[in-house]
Amino acid sequence: METALLRRFTRSRLATATCPCLLRSTFLPLNSTRSTRHVKPPARLISQFSSSSSTTTSKTLPQHALPPKGRPLIALGIETSCDDTCAAIVTSDRQILSEVLRTQHHLHEPMGGIVPKLAHHAHMRNLPSVVQEAIQSAGLGEQGIQAVDIIAVTRGPGLAHSLGVGLNAAKTLAAALNKPLIGVHHMEAHALTARLTTRDPDQPNDRDVSVSESGVPIGSDPYPSFPFLTLLVSGGHTLLLVAHSVDRYTTLATTVDDSIGEAFDKTARELDIPWLPGRAGGPGASLEEFAKGSIDPGRYLERLPIPLSLRSSKNEMKFSFAGLKSAVTRIVKQEKATSPSGEMEESKRQDLAAGFQHCAVTHLCQKVEQALVDCHEKGLDISSLVISGGVGRNATLRSRMDEICGQFEYGGAIATDKMSSKEKKKLKRASTNATPNETLKAARPVRVICPPPKLCTDNAVMIAWTGIERYQQGLVDPYDIDIVPKWPLDMLGTGVVPE
């Protein structure tokens, strides 16, 4: 009897250990209560958002979870939402101390796409060594992992079992080290990456570190400043949003069928294009590179539709790529049927890849242009367009967006009470409505901002940075949070998390 019970117990433990979605954290502090939302921040952070309302259960984190005054925050980020296992350590003065990434392309390319079960098991194998290497290469000194102030991890959206591997590791680390845990929305991280990597053109020394009145170490205000437009284009998402602030976004357009990344991937498979290796590789990147060899990029344009470009649908704020993808499939079948060898010539495949890319990018540009017009008419002063996500690496997309955004201008007020007299005089010439502490910026074109290509794909740097931004706003999570595989970005800040 006793032996049978032991066997049942062992089997249940093994089942739980191999299925992260079944795990519920056992490291919940004694003084905390379960919640599905954020918790009350440390006392030194309360003043930053005391005016905002909250309906969630709260707790106070231990004081030693905060860094010493005057030292930048240090965050460990963990990302396992899809097929890359990533860890990174980033500081609040925007220094990337380390980044480690393990790709799984060799596992998924033979399958023609991402296989969730393979991704899950690869994360379980890779994550311990990835985290260890990130810590060891960050130069944290004798303290090592103890020097980390925040544990940030992707909570969703993504593949459920993959998310579970990263989240359970982060919860265990945070509980063992008694550190704040930040559950990060994957798409918010993409949106905020530019605020880590971009310098404000008006503030050349914007990496200087200062300390707030509450004693929390901060850098200068990251750039771009809110509000800005964000185009998130990846294998799972095609989103156009207004980023009003950390934790607050408004969706302007999303796809009604396939994402642009999925359309790129399936078109690459249809055209038999081999994946490019490395973190900047994959099927989408391979299609862009393959299309560069096109001699006649307009060969198939008459047979490829630009989605939602007719007069009746041109102003509709939504994306659609299923029709374009189907048109590519039809052309490939027709070309193979008429070819003596039964295969499509490489030159024609290159032309078709170039035509597909042109139509897909044009579709994105038309909707972004419409969004800029709508925002202008509503009086929303948009300073920039941030393009992120895996497809954000596409050079053709970036170039075309530069042309679109260059047609729009923005202007706004900036504080001058801390400026030198010489700087004030210079700005005053740009405006006739200056006040003692406020001067209007001269109008200038809307700027297109793209993070470095390697940070457009899934990475832990963006997770760590978003953890810092959220922590500075007092957005801290309890240790019992769960994964959220499907999670609309504009639900952030509402206090509601999908089941």
TrEMBL record:
Q: Name one GO molecular function term.
A: metal ion binding
Q: State its location(s).
A: Mitochondrion
- Keyword Mitochondrion annotated: yes
> What does the record's cofactor remark say about binding?
Binds 1 divalent metal cation per subunit.
Q: Keyword annotations for this protein?
A: Acyltransferase, Metal-binding, Mitochondrion, Transferase, tRNA processing
Keyword Protease present in the record's keywords: the answer is no
Q: Which InterPro entries match?
A: ATPase_NBD, Gcp-like_dom, KAE1/TsaD, Peptidase_M22_CS, TsaD
Which residue range or ranges hold the Gcp-like domain?
95-204, 223-407
* Chief location bin: mitochondrion
The terms describing its cellular component in GO are:
mitochondrion
Q: Which Gene3D superfamilies match?
A: 3.30.420.40
What is a biological process (GO) this protein takes part in? Answer: mitochondrial tRNA threonylcarbamoyladenosine modification
Residue segments, region Disordered: 42-67
| Known cofactor(s) | a divalent metal cation
Q: Which reaction does it catalyse?
A: L-threonylcarbamoyladenylate + adenosine(37) in tRNA = N(6)-L-threonylcarbamoyladenosine(37) in tRNA + AMP + H(+)
PANTHER family hit by this protein = TRNA N6-ADENOSINE THREONYLCARBAMOYLTRANSFERASE, TRNA N6-ADENOSINE THREONYLCARBAMOYLTRANSFERASE, MITOCHONDRIAL
Which family, according to the similarity comment? Belongs to the KAE1 / TsaD family.
Instruction: Tell me the function of this protein.
Output: Required for the formation of a threonylcarbamoyl group on adenosine at position 37 (t(6)A37) in mitochondrial tRNAs that read codons beginning with adenine. Probably involved in the transfer of the threonylcarbamoyl moiety of threonylcarbamoyl-AMP (TC-AMP) to the N6 group of A37. Involved in mitochondrial genome maintenance.
Subunit record text: Homodimer.
HAMAP family assigned: TsaD
Can you name this protein?
N(6)-L-threonylcarbamoyladenine synthase
Species source reads Linnemannia gamsii
